[in-house]
Fold these 3 entries.
Entry 1:
Amino acid sequence: AAAAAAVPVQRSERKRKYNTHYCVFHQFQAPIKMEWLTTNIAHSTEFLLPCWSWFRRMNATDDCGIVLPSNQSFHRITDHQAPSWIRQMVDDAMRCKVIELPQRFRRADQTPLGPHAIQHIPNLIKIRPRFGMYRYLDEPSDAWALRRRLVSDEEITKVKGPGKPLRIGGLNRPTQRSVTNMMEILDALQEQYPYNSTAEMVYFNESYSLKEQAKWFATKDVILAPHGAGLANAVFITKGTIVMQMYPPLFFFQSLDPLIEQAGGIALDWYNGTNPLMDWYHSKEHSWQSHNANRHANMTPDVQEVVDKILAALDVTVWNRLRLDRWKSVPEEKKLKIYPQRRKRRSEDGNEKKTKKQGE
């Protein structure tokens, strides 16, 4: 009886093994350095999040794998040498197994994963250069599905949502690239909503687990932070969250703005200069050393300028939310009365398209 009962278990294990979907990275996949995957939190999202979107498209989020070359990139994760944020993202959020790619396989499509394994080799060139071509996620629902593996919707709605105070958060850096007047900015924002808002400032470090960081981001309506790796947690925000990044002089990389927008948020920037792109270009062109040094400079933003940008974005998001809620409460019969010509025009356009197709 014990032997008979063990047979279906073996079959199910075999089925799960051969249906695994693998996201394959290779050490010769230019132009991104492979060591960034296991050393830099912000750059690791460039590798991991496109894989997560592909796993969701293939309905393979419960049986996924990541293949890394057998060099330091692989051993940093397996030997727990990579930052805890990256390890927890792979183990706890994505829940993917990590597999070694032997060095004798010079190409990623030669991986020995079995005949029934489904492989995906990300085209990392698509996300370079920075700015406009960055693509982390295919759609916002990919980010929300990843967030729900760490923070449930019930945990969020207990503290955030309609009828709850506006939650404002400041994520600061302790030394380099720090916002020296962060508390002053938070106090000024809170004065705009004195009876219906909360504000707090934190410094993330290795003592914060990925779940704690995800919950902090997911339960905020407004987030202010200097540009940095901590904003990789923007993948966990909810729809309509306002995230403002602040940059020191002669340093302006909008690499995380697409992540904020692709997760359903609103990305804002504050820069201490005249023209961010031209300032950055000229500083890099003339002196790369000075540009690299400026990235660590502290900043003191103009409080009223920051507050005005946040309030303008809040008015847009609140108005859209109210308009959507009111429109949902309108009966269907009244909607037809409000826009009869518009609906008639749509039906006529649809009939014209049908007749054109039939004529063709």
Entry 2:
Amino acid sequence: MFKLSAFQDPLQKWLRDNPRAICPEPFYQRVLCWLGEDLPDLSISRERSRLQWGIPVPSDSTQTIYVWVDALVNYLSVLGYPETHGEWWPAAHHVVGKDILKFHAVYWPALLMAAGLSPPERIFVHSHWTVRGQKMSKSLGNVIDPFACNERYTVDGFRYFLLRQGVPERDCDYYDEKVVKVVNSELVDALGGLLNRSTAPGINPSNTYPCFSETCFPKVVDYRETEALGRAAAEDYEFVVSVASLPLRVASYFEDFQIYKALECIALCVRQTNGFFQRHRPWKLDRKDPSEKLWLDTIIHVTLECLRVYGTLLQPVIPHTADKLLSRLAVEPEERLISNLMFLPRYNGKPCPFEGRQLGPDTGILFHRLEKSSQHQIENKRL
């Protein structure tokens, strides 16, 4: 019998001292509630007659080690415990489903404390996927085949949908039409369409990263209190501020396992960039007119800078598509780090390493449109 009750106070102190140990917040509060109640001691073995496939208790062949004690210890044994685990432990981040939260957030930290070890650094908890409002189960015949999804939507498309729509705090609903709608709207039309329009030969015949004009888009301290000095409108300044703050916001959401919020922010900025491009109608500007050419090049420069930021930030989510986008913009591998991502340096009076650079080869459509088809029934596919 493991004296779990003896670790009630240490577990409470651990969580109060480390409010980010379990996230998202609702699951942190749930564990605190559990620890506010009496913790019963934990039997670490079961009758072997009821559980024959487990590990036998060394001193009693009639008993089998409780499966969760066996399973949890693997987190340490895979790291070489007790000789070499120190290189990784306790800097471990667990990603677990909400249904096994108690095992990871109560039993496991208590077992570690009993062994003189620290609990894991963070425990990220996620909810479940339902299918058209129903729990996914083989008996209902509504299990989703991920391999079929990868084949139809591509790996990037399916990853994007799951991370864009997956909210860790609550169960999320899956159905085929939603995948098609989200991917087509945000990857095909908004992101892919923006890349196609800003690199089209009719708009950018030199196929380059054109120059930015401070005259057309002068820096202002507060765009809300400053009359327009160049060609940029107040909403243009608002959108530039939004994109400039995007890397830090996205990094923060990634760190907190709120990936859907990061993608929501990126999607909003992509829509704003499309609005900027559409608002100023660069296809109507005369490149032969010097003043018009300055503004035309500035519009394209700002748009490509936005696309570079989006491509860089999307690398962990849709790596193949992001690579395709960044390669089209001629962004080298060493220039794709999120940690030193800077947006529109020319606006802030700094040199832009991409200005005047020849764009990469045209690789065609960034992301092909998904079609609704009754011939590709992924739902109701039994595994």
Entry 3:
Amino acid sequence: PPRRARAGAMLLLATLPIAMSFSPSGVFLSLPLLGSAVHKHASPHRSPLPARTPLLAPSRMLSDPPTPLQASSSSSSSSSSPLSPRGILEPLRVIWDFSRPHTIIGSVLSVLSLHLFAAGQPGLAVINLTALGVALGWAILCACFINVYVTGLNQVCDVEIDKINKPYLPIAAGRLSPSRAKVIIGVSLVLGHILPLLFYPFDRTGLMATVTGSSVLGTGYSAPPFRLKRHPLTAALCIIVVRGTLINLGFYAHAASVLGGELMPARALWASLFFAVFGTVIALMKDVPDVEGDAKFEIRTLSVRVGAEKVLGIASWLLSLCFG
């Protein structure tokens, strides 16, 4: 029996490293059993081993394995570490959410469509695809910078309103501080103007007129003391001018100047008129879900004045008018 006990003890000791990799707590539970087995079958001619202080306190040895909740919280904290992929990508995700992605996507598609529209105008014998690609790339870059500035400024100025209407936005949700948001929009405004002024290789008149006009109207729309968004008429005019006239005619002229085509043909004016009506729909619809917060902070939008249901009906009628 003593030999068998010693052999069993040696086998158990040999398997400790493997067992530790699966269940450390189970190994610690087995250590007292190992010791008692050795003492039980020890030779009576040998003096008993002196009592030793256990490596771990009994409470630690007998502690239960971590619960699923503890394990998940530990995993969550480790995944949000600054060195983890999630920790590295989180600032980029905050900036992406701060930029209002649906407006970024809309701006990119709008700029792309206008450049293709300008390239298809009658009378162009040869289309310089390289020049068109350069003009398109610069227009998208500047449009994205100014888009971040305009939508970010609106969030900076409407923090308390957004806590009611859009609590998921980064500043309202506490994911982005107002001071950092101001840095982001300031850098976006500067880069949207300085980069084309310094590096754009062609005539920059149409591009600069578009980005500067959008910046000025975006500032007047959101920032005090103007806060044009407080009144339905001035808010609608800002959106109609930017979305209907400035962007369409400005970026069309920007593309046409590179291609050598007519800057303001009738087809561009008709497109501008169509999107002016579409801009009116945007101006009406954007306030429909924000009635509660706008009313509390005295932003007298048309939805607050006459009711969201009526505004929704007017916008639906205008939208159906655009598409026949």
